Structure formats: C-alpha cells, structure tokens
C-alpha cells in the first residue's frame, strides 16, 4: 500500500486521545516521535531522515522554524517542538548531520504501535491501541484544516501530499447538519451585494461564537426561548441529540432550582434589554448529572433590527470551580501552616528564656494555646506517690476542665517521624484515665482521640485531642496534649510537627536541669537503691554473686554510655558471655587484670539507671552493684524537683527507690590549687619534658618540633622522652578527671 494511499478509514483521533498517547509515552524519544507524526505530519521514513541540521530558522522575531528534508520536502516545525528536539539533541550529544532518531523507519512504526497499545491498556480505551503513524498524520491534517483553518494549499505542501485527492481519504464526509451549518451565511444574507450596515446580525454573532464552540455549547433559540438549532458541541456538553432537544424550551437545560427562580426567562428578558446577559449557574445533562457553567445570552437581530431569537453559549466551568475550591482549601492549609510556624518560633523563643522545668511546661502550653491552631494545651506529669496528673494548662482551662477533655480511650498511636523512640514511658500504671495517655504515647508516637464533647468555662467544646510524649534520649518527662475543634486536624504533617515539639521540649527540660546543676553552688546528694532485674549490672551481681563498682562513666551519645568498672568475685569470661545475650550491651572487653579483680569496659546502648538519671540532669558520682542490689550516689541542683527524678527512674526501673538525700556544698578547686596539686604529682624530669614539648611546639598541629628534636635539646634519648611524656600526661589527666575529694 502506498504512503499516499492510507489504510481504510477508522475513527478519527480526538484531541483527548492524542493527549492520552503522549501521556503513555514512557521515554523522551517516544514522546518526540509521536509529536513529530501528530504535529508535523512526518512519515516514518521521514522521521528516520531528520537531523539537527535539517532545522531551519526562517524568522527571528518571533522565531519560526521549518524542517527541510531530502528532496524538496518541507514541513512546519512548531516552536515548542523545536525546543524539545534541541534539548534532546544536546542531552544525547547528536551532531548536526547525525539522525535524531537513529533507528529504521520500521522500528519507528513499531515504537508508535507500542505507545498506542500502552495507552489503550492504561486508559481502558481499545481504539487507542490501534493508532498508527498514518492515524497521527490524519490527526495532523484534520487539526490543520478544520480546527486551525489553515490554507489547504499550505497543508498539502507541509504534509508532503502530492495532490488534493491524496488528502480526501483522511477527511470524514460531512454530515447533513454540517452542510447546513456551513451555508448559514447564505441564509442570513441571500443577497451579498445588498448594502446597509448590520450592527449585531445573526450571521456575525453566530460566526463569532463558533470560535469557542469546541469548548462550549452553542445553542440557537427562538424568540420565545425554544431550541431552534443544536450543534455537536452542545450535544457533547448536554448529551441530547438534535432530534431530542430541538423544539424544547431552554429551561430543560437548567437545574430545577434555577427554573424555580425563573432564571431562564429572566436571562432572555435581560438580554433583550441590555443587549447581552451573562450569568453563572447550575445546568443539568440528559443523564441528570449537574455541572456549573457560565451562560452568555445574546439577542439575534436582522438588518432591520428585528429580533430573530437568541444565541446561548454555555461554557462548563466545573473544573474551574473545583480548582477554586482546591485553592481555598490550600489557602486554609497555608494559613494553618503559617500559624504553626509562628507557634513554633514563639515556642523556641520561650524555651530559650525558660530557667526551670516548670517554666518550660508553662511556656509550652501558653504558646500553643495562644494561636488559632489549638484551643487548649496542657502537660501532665504522673507521679507514683499520688497516681494523679499534675496538670499544666493554658487557654483559660482549669484542672477539672482539662479532665473533661481527656478521652476514656485513645486511638492507635501513629508515628510520622523516623527518629528513634524513647524506651521509657515516664509514668506509672494505674486505673486513672490519665494513664491511658501514657499507654498510647509510650512509643513516642502521637495518639489521637476524636468525637470529644465537653462543656468548659468559655462554652461547649466539640473536637479532637492529640497526645505526644515530652522526651529526651530514653527519658519521658511527661505528655503534651493539645485540643482543637478543627475537623481535619492531626494529619501526618501535623503529627510530625507535634513529635518535633515533644522532642524539643524534652531537650529543653534536660538542658535546663543540667545547666542548673553546673551553675549551682549547693547540690543535693541523692542515694538510690536499684534491685530491678532489667539493669544489666544488678542482674550480673545477683547471678554471679560478685561485686561491680563503677570507675568512670563516659557519655558517647544521647543513648550510649561507656562504662569502666572494677569486677570482683567473678570470671570476666562469664560476664562477657552474659553480656552477649543482652541486647543493650553493644561491646565489652578486658582492660586490666589485678590479683583479686579486673577492670572491664562496656558500651551500653539504651536504657540504664545511670542514663535515666543523667537525662534528668543528675550527675552520677558512684555506683556499685553487689548481691543483686545497686547503690547509686548522684548529685542534682538544690532547686531540682526530686520527686520528678525519682518518678522518672522508677518508670524505667520500677524496683528502685530513693534511699537518702542530703544538701552539701559543691567542692570548688581554683586554677592555682589545680596547678599546685599537679606539681606535687610530677617529677622534675616529667615537668621538664612536658614544658620543653609544649614550648617547642610538639603539641601544635602541624608540629613545630619532633620528639627527636626535643630529646636532642634535652640531652636524652627519644624513648626516654616518650616515657617522661606519657607518665606526665597521665598525672595531668588523673589530676583533671579524678575527684579531689577522693584524694
């Protein structure tokens, strides 16, 4: 079959179908091939002949392009497609004389067939699956001749057709209605030579409205409002065929409420009075479905200004209104996000100014309830002594009013953040409704309860609440709960923000406790007793009947600590074997062996009594574990809330208790006392070696002097210098790290 003789006529490819083909293209090349066929009218063989050098810019301002192929073949190249081709050429490094599509014409045909088959499957449209390159050329021809009204001679030239007869198989035969529509101008003006001006004639109005008929429904009405003419766009919009609707009153196209308001008749009256009417209302299709549309009614008049009916243009704007509603919804989301950001900034400022645990809680609740996002906010800390919540409220709510907003049951906790969650819960187990919050938030996720209805001081409340733990490391200091009447509250983004707030407030609490301890002249010495089997060292001392004493504790991260301990009465191998079975022990090794004991190193990840105390702003001074009992001596600031510290420890290790406390002065060592103490520990040679190495730049980076140069200057050997330096450095570090009270 000749390329000038297309295959038997099939259903014409619509604009929507063409867009579906482009959507089905999975590669940049596939999309370009489809566009070159459908928008330039190229055949497969001509596609294979396209090179970057064939693109000819024939106009500069604005730029316009032609494709000059072999022989005298010339095709028009749309500017947007030229840009895409240039981009493809640059990204693939194609030279000016190389083919843009370096495959055979047959392969290009198959590529279009593959895209068509994919489009048919993806959009469940069988007719798309059979689209070929010839169908795309037919689409190009119909678009150029019918939709764009391009001169047929130009279309024949750029499409590569040899005669007008070659174009005919691509075009559908006109229907009777189309023939009548095309000759409407003859009926409107049977004598083209007659003079006289027509300001708003039947033919001029119809022709002007026809330019929008592919987007809108164009209906010709008689003077009394009955449908006189019905085009294809109207049939597509409303679903009625011309035979079903012609002779029916225009009110059949309006929704019932519009008819009850008398809108159809009022629109025709106003159009006559004002020469035009435009309105936005609801219309109804044949199947009963409704759509929002803009209706324009224009009176039609003859050359004597006599009324000859109306032209009704109905443009479906449903998508516009849907987008408008979406924009409104997005605006509400943006306003909420803006308020959330403002709350977050205000909270950050308040946390920076807070100087105590109570101030952090009060500031958090006040800031969150001060904006439009939340109606109320509170933080509770549950204690073991009275098993009741100590409520911190904002927004004018008293403690008993807060109780009314606490649900009996919480929804399944849902986490949005990807961070590590706290292992402790920070609360006790009881039958109090407040403990339900603890169970819901023990994993660090946000728990939400909906359908909350209560009467508070300012009136009634009907909404939802969300609870999130206030935590840092493995310690939970309490629970933050917020209440709002927003129907769409606590989506994934908002839950992630609340989790961030919970961690931020927890971090502030821990930082303030530690700062207060560092700045306090007086401290409270606390002695804790722990018999909880979840403590590795407690259970080790019980199982092996041994003694474990803490020499040094080094924090490595928020949840990891390095323990140096002295072990007596047990074999290190037995202890290491048990450590391998405990998930919280990451590593262990033997440091030094004595006559009746040994020194061990443990890397402990996760919850431990010392870590929990540290996260409550407590400094651990001593710890010893013997016969299943651990005794921990620690210090906290004089104004610290000791009950909260005890509650926090017992929440993670229930079999723990406070054995004693006493207030004491913090020992202070001046710089002079430190230097004098160090001089007593160093020998003369050690001090001389340290001074020579320091002054000679041995400790600088990069080093100003090597060890050999320092040794030569001192008149000693290099090994001797290193021995003095190591011993002197050890005494220096021992003086700095060891407690002077232990001396």
Automatic annotation (TrEMBL):
SUPFAM superfamilies: DNA breaking-rejoining enzymes (SSF56349), GAF domain-like (SSF55781), PYP-like sensor domain (PAS domain) (SSF55785). Keywords: DNA recombination, Transcription, Transcription regulation. One of its GO terms (biological process) is DNA integration. Residues 402-422 have a biased composition (Basic and acidic residues). The keyword Transcription regulation applies. The keyword Transmembrane helix does not apply. Residues 277-329 form the PAC domain. InterPro entries: BAT_GAF/HTH-assoc (IPR031803), DNA_brk_join_enz (IPR011010), GAF-like_dom_sf (IPR029016), HTH_bacterioopsin (IPR007050), Integrase-like_cat_sf (IPR013762), Integrase_catalytic (IPR002104), PAS (IPR000014), PAS-assoc_C (IPR000700). GO terms for molecular function: DNA binding. It comes from the Archaea. Residues 8-184 form the Tyr recombinase domain. Residues 218-275 form the PAS domain. Residues 390-439 are annotated as: Disordered. This is PAS/PAC sensor protein. It comes from Natronococcus jeotgali DSM 18795.
